[in-house]
Task: inverse folding
């Protein structure tokens, strides 16, 4: 059955994936399981990520937060031995499967990585490259300026557009990577611990930026920092390690997915409660 | 103050230190042995090259150098002759440069292409592992074996007279290309493997195809490494003698080859021939040839070493960026004319960095249209 005619949120009121009030789901996973070789990384995850919200994925190390995130733009395909079962939808279209072109998908589902990874090119070309290779026919200069402005970086770099992106500070590099992602006009931005390599001031700037971007984009952020999840996100998904299977591996499962204020004040799942109060993880 | 447990330790600090110093000394001796051999070799070759009369005393450095320069330029500009006073390496030098050019034209595209395929495209599995192992083994096959292969395949074409290359320069170039191909492939693969995965992921996450990632990010990053390995492979090719003897590099040729279909000889082959001649004077000529060959090899290696330094890497990537820009700005001529570009074009004499990539497309676009 195809995913495109389903009002997924209303028809599938799974307890793990309650609909966010007043928002439709843009990314949907249903009964998603992932293996790397013989190691199961995720088991039976069902989640519906609401549009124009910031959704945080939290949980202990190795519980599959990044794996889940990378499923949505097929970056896991690059890992040898990766295998998944279940359904993944983006805007009602399937994400996985041989008929889906990951190149097209990745333009619409952008990604910001843990470590700032600007290209060893000029600031200008860092932003312009993605648009150019996607066949952008508009005014590149205008696009570069607009993207840098939206990433709150323009004022700091407008005089050094032809300097290398690697000459910027760590926080500026990360915002440059965000600008680069914005330049290809994605609908969703996946952020994999975007602030873990940044100092508190740079972190605050990125968090403010996310708040500004929320109006136009759907943001999914993986974070180890529970204060950050609390500060920035509207919805929070808490992943946990399942109990050990026969071979000792513990796949990740979705323990709870709720509005952030609910999850952090009145968690329903005892494992979530233990995690957010610091007793495990 | 000592604790009771100290009695259980016997530190023997003097012995431990002496052992360390001794080991470092052995390693130093091992290092120096290579340097010493090189110095002795160069000295012996120099003495041989300067053996012809007149013989100025060894301490007259200026005179010796002048004599050496005159001698080298004489043997570099004259061809083979039965008279050692007139004999030289012109045919061999030009033959070797031809070989170098043809080997570069054949081995670099094929080798880099194979390395790219194996590293970037080939599906991991048993087949790829088998190919990989074979290439590593091929790099260790003795060069004379390649000579025999070249004789059968290129010179004689398995007996098909129409395809046989005989003693043409082509036969030597193809044989040497086969010889260095594994080195180029392995160097390319190693350079590609050194490209950080974060760079590929960043590019792929923007919706780039694999070819776009390779063209704009992977190859430019790997280029200095590829060039280094390739130059070292070429300097191996230019020093090879044995396979060329098999595929028809001539003993003595009076006219340097003027094209890849001519008969040819190569510098190391001529050196070998002169060294085997009975007259003592030819030894000097052979030694002079060795100096020329070493000069070529050392300057090629110097380029390779330069490309490994940060300055060299920047220079290489800048050159490549320049090449890429020529193609790109031609297509985009006039598109990015307005707004930002005019605001960015060369901010001022002090601020313009070495790579003013933003300004350039506009400038060139304007110039072309």
Result:
């Amino acid at each position: 059955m195809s995913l495109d005619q389903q009002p997924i949120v209303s028809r599938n009121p799974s307890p793990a994936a309650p609909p966010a009030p007043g928002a439709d789901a843009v990314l949907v996973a249903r009964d998603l399981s992932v293996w790397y070789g013989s190691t199961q990384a995720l088991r039976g995850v069902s989640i519906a990520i609401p549009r124009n919200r910031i959704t945080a994925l939290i949980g202990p190390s190795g519980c599959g937060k990044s794996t889940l995130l990378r499923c949505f733009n097929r970056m896991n395909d690059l890992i040898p031995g990766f295998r998944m079962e279940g359904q993944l939808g983006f805007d009602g279209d399937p994400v996985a499967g041989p008929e889906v072109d990951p190149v097209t998908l990745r333009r619409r589902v952008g990604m910001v990585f843990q470590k700032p990874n600007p290209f060893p090119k000029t600031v200008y070309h860092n932003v312009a490259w993605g648009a150019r290779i996607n066949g952008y026919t508009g005014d590149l200069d205008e696009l570069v300026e607009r993207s840098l402005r939206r990433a709150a970086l323009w004022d700091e770099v407008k005089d050094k557009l032809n300097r290398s992106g690697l000459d910027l500070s760590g926080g500026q590099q990360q915002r440059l990577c965000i600008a680069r992602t914005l330049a290809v006009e994605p609908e969703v931005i996946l952020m994999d611990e975007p602030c873990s390599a940044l100092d508190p001031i740079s972190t605050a700037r990125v968090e403010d930026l996310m708040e500004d971007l929320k109006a136009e984009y759907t943001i999914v952020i993986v974070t180890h920092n529970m204060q950050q999840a609390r500060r920035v996100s509207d919805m929070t998904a808490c992943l946990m390690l399942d109990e050990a299977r026969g071979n000792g591996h513990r796949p990740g499962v979705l323990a709870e997915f709720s509005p952030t204020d609910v999850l952090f004040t009145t968690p329903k799942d005892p494992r979530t409660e233990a995690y957010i109060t610091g007793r495990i993880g | 103050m000592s604790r009771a447990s100290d009695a259980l330790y016997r530190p023997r600090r003097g012995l431990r230190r002496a052992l360390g110093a001794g080991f470092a000394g052995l390693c130093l001796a091992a290092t120096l042995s290579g340097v010493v051999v090189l110095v002795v070799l160069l000295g012996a070759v120099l003495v041989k090259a300067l053996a012809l009369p007149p013989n100025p005393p060894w301490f007259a450095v200026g005179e010796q150098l002048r004599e050496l320069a005159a001698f080298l330029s004489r043997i570099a500009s004259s061809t083979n002759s039965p008279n050692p006073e007139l004999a030289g390496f012109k045919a061999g030098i030009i033959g070797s440069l031809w070989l170098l050019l043809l080997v570069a034209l054949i081995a670099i595209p094929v080798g880099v292409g194979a390395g790219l395929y194996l590293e970037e495209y080939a599906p991991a599995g048993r087949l790829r592992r088998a190919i990989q192992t074979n290439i590593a083994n091929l790099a260790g096959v003795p060069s004379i074996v390649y000579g025999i292969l070249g004789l059968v395949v290129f010179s004689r074409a398995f007996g098909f007279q129409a395809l046989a290359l005989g003693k043409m320069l082509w036969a030597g170039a193809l044989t040497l290309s086969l010889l260095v191909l594994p080195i180029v492939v392995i160097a390319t693969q190693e350079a590609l493997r050194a490209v950080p995965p974060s760079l590929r992921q960043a590019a792929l996450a923007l919706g780039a195809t694999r070819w776009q990632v390779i063209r704009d990010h992977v190859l430019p990053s790997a280029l200095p490494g590829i060039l280094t390995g390739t130059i070292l492979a070429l300097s191996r090719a230019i020093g090879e003698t044995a396979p060329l003897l098999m595929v028809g590099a001539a003993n003595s040729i009076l006219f340097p080859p003027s094209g890849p279909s001519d008969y040819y000889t190569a510098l190391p082959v001529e050196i070998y021939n002169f060294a085997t001649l009975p007259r003592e004077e030819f030894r000097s000529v052979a030694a002079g040839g060795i100096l020329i060959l070493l000069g070529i090899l050392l300057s090629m290696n110097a380029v390779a070493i330069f490309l490994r330094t940060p300055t060299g890497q920047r220079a290489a990537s800048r050159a490549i960026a320049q090449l890429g820009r020529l193609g790109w700005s031609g297509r985009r001529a006039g598109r990015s004319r307005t707004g930002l570009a005019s605001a960015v074009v060369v901010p001022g004499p002090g601020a313009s960095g070495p790579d003013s990539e933003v300004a350039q497309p506009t400038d060139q676009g304007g110039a072309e249209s």
Observations:
- Strands of chain A lie at 25-36, 39-50, 54-58, 82-90, 93-94, 109-112, 188-192, 218-222, 235-241, 252-259.
- Residues 1-22 of chain A have pLDDT under 50 and may be disordered.
- Chain A has eleven helices and ten strands.
